[in-house]
Specification:
Length: about 325
């Protein structure tokens, strides 16, 4: 199939491109490189021994999107492009809505014009807000607590309204839990700008000596060890979920929603311990205040994805931490050359 991948130079996009190429798909990747480097795509081609077309462009450029879809006879779009820093989204909300919502609208207009009706969208477990219970199923109430989360929810709504208005569309909403890890080659991985906000990249930078110690944000949550519990999922499992969704839902009209998680929660201290084991180093830490907006626990019920997509996560904590460490130790400065 001929697929347009937006944001394909980024963390999840680049890992997904590997599996798409390996499955024989033809890829046109567009990315404005606002949060990534083109080197990630060179590595994707090195790993797979196959080539893809990369165009540096912005999804808000409707004309460019339309022309690319037309000239490459695109059949489906996998839409990763977006801004994703929760804290930053509260400081510059207009940029977040412009990029994530405005960008998606431009992309959808180009798709309509080019008559491409298959869309797979990167949503997030953040759309469940602070869930009343765990595990979380797809029919839980939806809400948001920050502009990033609202932008995901708004795009979900726009895609749902579009599908309802024109039933030939196939719209797939993938709600990711906490993606971690890297391709087992160690050639690509997560490369956050500045000091990481997320737990695993932070721990990895403590392990490599770029940061002094981990701050554990609160140890008085109502969880077994008092620290926050999340559903960490290996990025290669997540990538596999995209392939499954593409194969199942392309030209299968409807609105399809899936949790992509493992169904298993781990605490901050469990993650720290697992990483220390993988890298054979101490990870010093202090307990600090809770981070505003954080919830106690969050993990998926992945049964629907298993049933409808025949997909489930296969990689455990050991692979997540070992693969993250291989990438971090091989390239301590990420894609910086
Ligand atoms: P990422 O920042 O590594 O990748 C996003 C890519 O999109 C980057 O390469 C960036 O340069 C590009 N981009 C941003 N705005 C663009 C625009 N206007 N035009 C073209 N390219 C643009 O992030 P990621 O972790 O790979 O996340 C991919 C998607 O998954 C995002 O939509 C994100 O919100 C969503 N998501 C991520 C997580 C996570 O923890 N990583 C969790 C849930 C959902
Ligand atoms: C964050 C985002 C969420 C996004 C998700 C996916 C916030 C508030 N939420 O979720 O919208 O969908 O990433 O990537 O940013 N922790 C520490 N010390 C640290 C960093 C994190 O103790 O230095 C703890 C947190 O309190 C939390 C857990 O580690 O309990 C995971 O945090 P993080 O990796 O930031 O992910 P989420 O908060 O789940």
């Amino acid at each position: 199939m001929k697929i347009l991948v937006t944001g394909g130079a980024g963390y999840i996009g680049s890992h997904t491109c590997i599996l798409l190429l390996e499955a024989g798909h033809t890829l046109v990747v567009i990315d404005n490189l606002s949060n990534s480097k083109a080197l990630s795509l060179s590595r994707v081609q090195e790993i797979t021994g196959q080539s893809l077309v990369f165009v540096q462009a912005d999804i808000r450029d409707e004309t460019a999107m339309f022309e690319l879809m037309k000239s490459h006879a695109i059949e489906a779009v996998i839409h990763f492009a977006g801004l994703k820093a929760v804290g930053e989204s509260s400081q510059i909300p207009v940029n977040y809505y412009d990029n994530n919502v405005g960008g998606t609208l431009a992309l959808l207009k180009a798709m309509q014009k080019a008559e491409v009706y298959n869309m797979i969208f990167s949503s997030s477990a953040t759309v469940y807000g602070d869930p009343q219970t765990v595990p979380i199923t797809e029919d839980f109430p939806l809400t948001a607590t920050n502009p990033y989360g609202w932008s995901k929810l708004m795009v979900e709504q726009i895609l749902s309204d579009l599908q309802a208005s024109d039933p030939q569309w196939s719209v797939t909403l993938l709600r990711y839990f906490n993606p971690v890890g890297a391709h087992p080659s160690g050639l690509i991985g997560e490369d956050p700008n500045g000091i990481p906000n997320n737990l695993l990249p932070y721990i990895a930078q403590v392990a490599i000596g770029r940061l002094e110690k981990l701050s554990v944000f609160g140890d008085d949550y109502p969880t077994p060890d008092g620290t926050g519990v999340r559903d960490y999922i290996h990025v290669m499992d997540l990538a596999k979920g995209h392939l499954a969704a593409l194969e199942r839902n392309t030209n299968r009209a409807g609105r399809h929603v899936y949790n992509l998680g493992t169904g298993q929660g781990y605490s901050v201290l469990e993650m720290r311990e697992a990483f220390a084991k993988a890298c054979q180093r101490e990870i010093p830490y202090v307990v600090s205040e809770r981070r505003p907006g954080d919830i106690a626990e969050c993990w998926a019920d992945p049964a629907w994805a298993q049933q409808d997509l025949d997909w489930s996560a296969e990689l455990g904590l050991e692979e997540m931490t070992t693969d993250a460490w291989r990438w971090q130790s091989r390239f301590p400065n990420g894609f910086e050359e």
